[in-house]
Records
---
Amino acid sequence: MLNKLSTNTINTILIIGVVLLVVEIVFFNGGLVFSVLFSSVLIYLGWKNYKPLWRKVLFWIGIISLVFTILSMIAVRFLIVAMILIFLMNYFKSREKPERLEPEIIDNRQEIPDHEPLLKQKFFGDETTPKRSYEWSDVNIHGGFGDRIIDLSHTVLPHDEAVISVRHFVGNITVYVPYEVEVNIHHSALIGRASVFQYKKTKVLNQVLSFQTENYRSTKPRVKILTSMVSGDLEVKRV
């Protein structure tokens, strides 16, 4: 999410937070410094020798006191509100322009090293495949918020079985599969809907759905799609 922000925007948010902190300490609540120092001393004394019970009590009193002191700061509240607003802006933007993943055709002359994943894990934001040819490897995607589109129409699947695993929190998942590819799907969701080719499930409430094309076990190429999410829709289409 932060990689979508310009450096100037991040700097502005941080500067405003620092100014609010200074103003609060100087003009409104000078006791914040004492509270932070007192909590830090309790944490230090408790952590220095954690075995005795009274040291443990001191440590956790210090932790709780420090957390409440930090959360009571105007600057911290401002940063929390700013992060929530930025999150909502990026979420609605991702709804308008969903992430689109389009694997490219295999070129054996160029290969991705084993230590470099095909798709990087991102909790929020855009994710794309490399802008060059690569050898197919199974896809494992972790998502947070927003829609995801996975397009398999521009790649050559392996001779055995390709595996695509998508674990998502909130948002819709759309998968485009070529007509000649057999499919095996396992989908679980807490809340949402599912549409796989001609099969449609209007409501999914804490269920696991399975779908397999007729010739999946005997015909290749084939792909196994494993999806799980908290809330969102799954749609698998032929292209």
---
Amino acid sequence: MSWEQITSLVNRIDLESSPGNHPVVPRMVPEPLEIVGVGTDAAVVRHPDRWDTVFKVYAPGREQAWADEQKVYKRLGESPWFPVMKGGGPGFLVLSHEKGPTLYDCLTEGIPIPSGVVDEVEEARRFVREKGLNPRDIHLKNVLLQNGHAKLVDVSEYLKPGEDGRWDYLVQAYHRFYPLIRGKRIPEDVLEGIKQTYRECGNHPLSMVEWKRRFFTLLSQTDHSSP
């Protein structure tokens, strides 16, 4: 299928914006396009004739996110840590297709996370700051484990000010108690419970000791944590 035909299909995608921090809802995605992922601003789709490319399509009302993300990718250029923007059109971006489980998937599936991945994310954050951007919103679902290395996706908040602190907490958790759960399958409801606690704490973050206590309390309430 030609590029013009594929982009014509992309332009027919119908998404519905969701309130709050909830993912957009795909109402119609024409075949043979297939959904790769869904976020709060956009859905990511691919065409079987373009295995190395994805299209990030933004929902109505998310035009600013589309414009901001274009600016970020142009500033980042090519690097070992981020997808490459290949182009775009009204309401969508064309990006390199990055494969691999997210760090969230690694925890739920019991896939060991190498310490080098954490170090590479730190390198990527330094690189982002050198480009005059702010590496916000880096969390378990925005980092892929790709052939043993880190690949960061979703750069939509890198133009926003302020530090959300999410990655810093994850780094502390990785060094403090990840060795105790390495290789174990962590139930998704445990991870979601921790995430909800983080949101509820807001500007009053818990100590790492308290995070550890709550995590293992949730973990003890389920019998699905064995490899």
